[in-house]
Amino acid sequence: xxxxxxxxxxxxxxxxxxxxxxxxxxxxxxxxxxxxxxxxxxxxxxxxxxxxxxxxxxxxxxxxxxxxxxxxxxxxxxxxxxxxxxxxxxxxxxxxxxxxxxxxxxxxxxxxxxxxxx
Length: 118
Fold this sequence. Notes:
Elements: H1 9-26, H2 30-37, H3 53-72, H4 77-84, H5 95-98, H6 102-116
Helix pairs in contact: 1-3, 3-6
């Protein structure tokens, strides 16, 4: 893989810590986090973000989703986690299941951004 398709190790470490913290805060299971970040398998203590561009991009998109949820929930992680695990009629699915794919992650992010602009 060429260097232009890889994130810097320092960026990967920083984003990995933020993703792990956000996932813990929202009660996201390791298997879901692995799917969100595009990592085939996470074991306790594993880095949730790899150096490839797709994993890094998914991680940054996930962090944007987390930040918007945090804003909407006024910092209440339980409220944000509840929203993630509840069916959304506009999204036609449960957000935690939707964000397991890049397309679903983008759709959830777009939805949250559109709600922010109301």
